[in-house]
Amino acid sequence: MPSSLLYVSQIAPPSPLVAARRVAGLCKYLARLGYDITVLASDLSGAGEIEGARVVRTHDLITSPLNWRRGHFAALSGSSSATYAPPSRLESVVVPDLALATWVPFALPRALRLASGRQFDCVLTSSPPQSAHLIGRALRTRGIPWVAELRDGWTFEPHHVPWPTKLQRGLDGRLERRLLSRTDGLVAVTKPIADDLSRRLGREVVVITNGYDPEEEASGDGAAGRLDPDRHSLVYTGRISAGRSTPGPLLEGFRELRRTAPQAAERLELVFAGPLTAAETDELEAPDLAGSVKLLGPLGRDAVLTLQRQAGSLLVITEGSLRRSVATGKLFEYLAAGRPILVLGEETEAARIVAETGTGIATSASDSGRIASALRELVERAPDLGSATIAQYSYAVLAENLAEVIDRAGRR
Questions:
Q1: Among residues 138, 151, 137, 170, which one has the least CA distance to residue 26?
Q2: CA torsion angle for 222, 225, 226, 232 (degrees, to 10)?
Q3: SS3 of residue 6 by DSSP
């Protein structure tokens, strides 16, 4: 039965980050199912409306003038053309995450005031940051059913670098178990994350992946002239190191292709659209790659979608076996674009989804020889797209799945 939902997510539209697009997609289609939605977010995502929801934005110290690294977030989100920096060292200090100090002190009191002013039938908290789940726990003590959503693993294959001390690791693990064991519903974006939580907590965990909006279209002219019509354009859109990945193995694979199949290499261009770190820029602008690697910088949403649809093929870079649970948000945009997908990381959830849908190929995330072979295959014999449907990754379908979780939580 449709109900009143408080959706707590630090990142929300109009931010271009994947977390914000998930909020946008789920809110849009949950509202069409009859849900009355309030989104509680941080002001670091900017200002603006969200289709299907009312929005409450709280202060976040990340945007404060006291934060000398606030330009890093602007570059990371693509609102600045500057290169972005590696994560702050403070991220290896505060358990479970920096938002415990920067956002939760503002968001928690606001959530409690919202709950005292109206009756929510359910609260949905989305992580990262994991500290957002403290808000769900606080509202549950007031009798509001609570669903926790994990877009990355918490202690399982975490997005952040490993905690440097045993004390921190122990505290993080206890906090994860204490909070997630007390929810009325658990959601994970990939099956490996769900399986791990289910095994360790003895709880049912529902997989609701990231997805694509079937109504989102590109005008078709936002990327005009950016790709070489006489070459096969392998396109990557988004941030690389934000997912703890690196372009290094791909570039070594391309160099190997030059040595072993120079004609195939000549027919290939590697195109990157999105914010980069200074180190990534240096790697991609290496003199020996001139003319083969094209950096487009941050692009608007329409240009990104158009670029994806005009590409010869689309690229997903992962850490391979180090984080098997990864299925990046861009993967689902790629599925909607209808172009062949190359996944570097054949052990990952992204590779499994591409195989399941018959939409591309996967290879090693680190072996330059195998990467070179995959690049040659793309140029000489682009993989045929399978006939399997991708409709299950539409936010219209995913919202229906989430609605079932919310309704069950309300009945518990």
A1: 151
A2: 120
A3: strand
The closest alpha carbon to 209, from 14, 394, 6, 9, belongs to 394
pLDDT value, residue 268:
98
What integer pLDDT is reported at residue 315 of this predicted model?
97
**Domains in the chain with CATH codes:** 4-211+394-411 (3.40.50.2000), 232-391 (3.40.50.2000)
Q: What is the pLDDT of residue 206?
A: 98
Say if residue 219 is exposed, middle or buried (CB neighbours under 10 Å; 0-12, 13-18, 19+).
exposed
Inter-residue contact 7 to 376 (CB < 8 Å): no
Which residues are registered as beta bridge partners of 271?
Answer: 235, 294
Tokens for 215? 């109504």
Asked whether 197 and 133 are in contact (CB, 8 A), the reply is no
Extract the residue ranges of the chain whose pLDDT is less than 50.
68-69, 76, 78, 80, 84
**Residue 106 phi/psi, 5° resolution?**
-95, -40
Contacts for 19 with CB less than 8 Å, ≥ 6 apart = 9, 10, 11, 12, 126, 151
